Amino acid sequence: MAQEDVFKKLVSHCKEYGFVFPSSEIYDGLGAVYDYGQNGVELKNNIKQYWWQSMVLLHENIVGIDSAIFMHPTIWKASGHVDAFNDPLIDNRDSKKRYRADVLIEDQIAKYDEKINKEVAKAAKKFGDAFDEAQFRSTNARVLEHQAKRDALHQRYSDAMNAGPDLNELRQIILDEEIVCPISGTKNWTEVRQFNLMFSTEMGSTADGSMKVYLRPETAQGIFVNYLNVQKTGRMKIPFGIAQIGKAFRNEIVARQFIFRMREFEQMEMQFFVKPGTELEWFKKWKEIRLKWHKALGFGDDHYRYHDHEKLAHYANAATDIEFLMPFGFKEVEGIHSRTNFDLSQHEKFSGKNIKYFDPETNESYTPYVIETSIGVDRMFLSIMSASYKEEQLENGESRVVLKLPAALAPVKLAVMPLVKKDGLPEKAREIIDALKFHFNCQYDEKDSIGKRYRRQDAIGTPYCVTVDHQTLEDNCVTLRNRDTMQQERVAIADLDRLIADRVSITSLLKTL
Ligand code: ATP
């Protein structure tokens, strides 16, 4: 099946099974805003818990906070967001569609990469075991030609982005590369303009007027302006970290690809405060820790890659993305940035307050450097859903849709089903749920055939189902069915907790880190 079709199916599956709904749907929706349904919220909460616990429980020197969405507007002046949180926009005059100029060019670079990869795949098929990929890449004329064009474009693009960005040059690149609008197919482009991504609103209303405030575009600044509060009240010593999960808002121009790019989304950010000069060592460490966290979910190492930034944001001295193989290619899920002392120095300057750290061991004061790990909950959700969604052909000729979610993240851990709705079986099933519901999320289901009920649970990723039958009333044993293998085994009710709890708990996942 083409990847685009898989993605479409995934989007409708998310809606049909209560994971994600378009916001305000009965009013025809609101662009790039989504609501999470009864299963989506459980999965989302489990992702957040996995992240939070991996930060705050597993690291003695990391604590959490929860700062407000509204902040003093000068904060966004100091952070650079008022002046520099812009996207370069370009419109196609024929389709009237608006695009990000940088994204159009990056897509063009990706096209060259695709061409090269196609050549490589073709040759690999042709030569079989004797194929030497490195040699092919360095000698094949067609590959070299594509590579040269790609590298030249890349260089030109990064020069343009680093020069401000140079908006005229971005437009010229689009013209020179003959990039067309995917809707109209024409090259009738406007000038490139800058567009600020922050939402603003008014706070208070007095005779003197009201104050313009912003909806935060990232959670990080709430951590920066509280770092000294936490350090002092928590008696934290450098190096230490502060973690936060919360909403962020960006007026994204090109909001596409479902929950990949939203206007209201959620971030999980951790700022790690270190001694100046040690930041690159910590940057390397956090890159490794974070990749391990992703890989522990078991989707396969080939689903991840680092993408080191060549164009660094004005505040960074090193930056990398962890990219995940989505149905539409490798895409950023998390950013890891070495932000220097830029933010803290700026807040010191704009607030006029001394927010330096006093090191009791060396008796000196300094502005800490910061390593940031920043991941979008919604993008993480999308990556997990897309890697888990499977359509399987079964031996009996039927097919099933199954979400092979990591058990620790699954919304429901166990479905308990009486074989029939009578003879005391429902009561027995409820008894099992009453004993287990304190440990994990259980669901009771008595409607339709057992086969149909299994399919329903497969579709929401429930790792285990238990069937209560007449025999159960005599021997207190049930049939335990495994989602992935579909194997069934007869187990004692008394053993259920021991058999399941470990396999579905976030604690077990954390222990693999
Ligand atoms: P992009 O280049 O895709 O716009 P970014 O580099 O601006 O992302 P950061 O500012 O580094 O993103 O934000 C950190 C994380 O927050 C991202 O890795 C992503 O997971 C998430 N994120 C950012 N913008 C959005 C959005 N509009 N919708 C959903 N998640 C987002």
Layout: helices, strands, pairs:
Elements: H1 3-16, E1 20-22, E2 34-36, H2 38-57, E3 62-64, H3 74-78, H4 81-84, E4 86-91, E5 98-100, H5 101-127, H6 133-139, H7 141-162, H8 167-176, E6 193-196, E7 200-206, E8 209-214, H9 220-224, H10 227-233, E9 240-249, E10 264-274, H11 279-295, E11 304-308, E12 318-326, E13 329-338, H12 342-351, E14 357-359, E15 364-366, E16 369-376, H13 377-388, E17 389-393, E18 399-403, E19 414-418, H14 425-436, E20 442-444, H15 450-460, E21 464-468, H16 470-475, E22 477-482, E23 488-492, H17 496-504, H18 506-511
Parallel strand pairs: 3-9, 19-20, 19-21
Antiparallel strand pairs: 1-2, 4-5, 4-6, 7-8, 9-10, 10-16, 11-12, 12-13, 13-16, 14-15, 17-18, 21-22, 22-23
Helix pairs in contact: 2-13, 5-7, 5-8, 7-8
Bound molecules: adenosine-5'-triphosphate (ATP).
Residues 218, 250, 252, 261-262, 265, 267, 332-335, 374-376, 378-379 line the site of adenosine-5'-triphosphate (ATP).
Top keywords for this entry?
single chain; 513 residues; seven-stranded mixed sheet
Helix count, DSSP H or I runs of 4 or more residues: 18
> Which structural class matches the secondary elements?
alpha+beta
Ligands, deduplicated: adenosine-5'-triphosphate
Q: How many individual β-strands?
A: 23
Helix content: 25-40%
